[in-house]
Amino acid sequence: MLKTIALISDFGNTDHYVGTMKGVMLSICPEICFVDICHEIAPQDVSHAAFVLKESYPFFPIGTIFLIVVDPGVGSRRKRLIISCEDYTFVLPDNGIIGPVFSRLNRPKVYEITEEEHFLTPASRTFHGRDIFAPVTGRLACGFSPEKFGRRTERFNIHPFPKPVFDRESLNLSGVIVHIDHFGNIVSNISSEDLNVFKDSIDIALGNRSISRIIPSYSDGRPGELVALISSGGFLEIAVAGSSAKELLGVKTGDKIIVRSEKT
Question: Residues 97, 54: contact at Cβ < 8 Å?
Fold first, then answer.
């Protein structure tokens, strides 16, 4: 029976890195179905990887193993983790990528990867994806239990998904940009449920521009119009119909976005 391994990395698609990791895993377990979620994570951008994982993992079949290699601390003393729950398994460096996902997992158990007999030798200090994470993931796909690779740990890094802040005095809801996609669409951390605090019409401020309406879909905007809508993940998104909101506004991840009642 094929085992699904879903991959996220910042390796891009012009080098051998992703293919080499797949070769290692196939050498250990030939019955693998690979799904490439994304290899265009911004270099060493842990927050970008965390967002992509959060948005994608619930749509995979039960039993999928997720291998995430976005690892600015490669070669350092940062931990290497297996996170196993009743539905999925995650193999990744201990740098907070799992944060936005962890609280949603069903009875998660966290293991530190320490048993070096499972690594390729000599293990490179610069390519743990090939020499450590890939062989461990291949063996997990073959049915090895997480306990084979190290002991459970309660100490690991979690960087939770940032939450917007509602100021009851000013009636302002303050959020941040958490992702800008390939099309230049801007995704915030403000969910559709967060917007329920407003009973009247709202004004959305981003950069030096404001938006006064939320439309159902991109096609409901006029060509070139700056619009707001709810993203496929359920968050407030800013877009330009037929163009790029990022180019128009010149914003970046981490920039503030404010929602307020038009009556204030």
Answer: no
